[in-house]
Design a protein that fits this description.
Layout: E1 2-7, E2 12-17, E3 20-23, E4 26-27, H1 35-51, E5 60-67, H2 73-84, E6 90-95, E7 105-112
Parallel strand pairs: 5-6
Antiparallel strand pairs: 1-2, 2-3, 3-7, 4-7, 5-7
InterPro entries: RutC-like_sf, YjgF/YER057c/UK114, YoaB-like
Pfam families: Ribonuc_L-PSP
Protein name: RidA family protein
Length: 113
């Protein structure tokens, strides 16, 4: 059985299948302007999404981060490192053109219940 959380016309926020968790890409509320604010906003949303399926950041096994500008790497890491805790998941971070010019970061997470 596949459980789709908050499905929309194009994607579900979270999909759970056979104990595996996959999120859609998460971007910040565009009132958040700087990379630190956007990173915190995205990580807060991620925690909220995970809580909807009874999971937390400790359930994340892999995280994918896209940055619109790799010069934001260190500032993003300062927020991420404070958030991630002592059991970090596998992670990749790449530079990419995001869906809107004001988006500075997008995160997708994968995990296990």
């Amino acid at each position: 059985m596949i459980e789709r959380i908050n499905p929309g016309p194009r994607a579900s926020q979270v999909v759970v299948v056979k104990g595996r968790i996959e999120t859609s890409g998460i971007v910040a509320d565009l009132s958040k302007r700087g990379i630190s604010e956007q990173t915190q906003c995205v990580l807060t949303q991620l925690e909220q999404w995970l809580s909807q399926v009874g999971a937390g950041k400790e359930n994340i096994t892999r995280i994918q981060i896209w940055l619109s500008d790799m010069s934001n790497f260190e500032a993003m890491n300062a927020v991420y490192d404070a958030w991630v805790g002592e059991q970090p998941p596998a992670r990749a971070c790449v530079g990419a053109q995001l869906a809107a010019p004001d988006y500075l970061i997008e995160i997708q997470a994968f995990g296990e219940l």
